Amino acid sequence: MTTRLVLTALVGRTGAVLLRMRDEQSAVRANRWSLPGGPIRAGESPVGAAKRHIAEQARLAVDGEPALFWQGFLPGTRTDVYFFAVGTPAWNQDIVAEAGVVAEFVAGEDVLSGRAFTAASGFVLGRFLDSTEYLTLAGRFFPADPV
């Protein structure tokens, strides 16, 4: 049976990315950093699941619709991952505390610095941080004006 997951990178104006980590008491992925996300429900579209997980886990305002960055299977698994990205005007002081969860915006250049990630988040984050899509959301990519 195939498992379908959705992850969403919330990118702030400075390029910081929202990361979450459940504490050691969690029965699911304890002490692993991840992006907001989780399973896609039966009958739910991937973008609908992305919006639901943003609302349930992040509770932060976003700029527009989440855009699909990548979709595919994690190597060696039957896990089909949909990776979305969306900008947000939010910052650390806007994060609503949740028992057993650490959540913070981390500077893009520090995201991959020594953190242990869940398999799905870790697999896609490096590609995303090197992408034009990330640079655009972070306000660091300025394409040449068309002639």
UniProtKB/TrEMBL annotation:
It comes from the Bacteria. InterPro entries: NUDIX_hydrolase-like_dom_sf, NUDIX_hydrolase_dom. Gene3D superfamilies: Nucleoside Triphosphate Pyrophosphohydrolase. Residues 7-70 form the Nudix hydrolase domain. This is Nudix hydrolase domain-containing protein. It comes from Catellatospora methionotrophica.
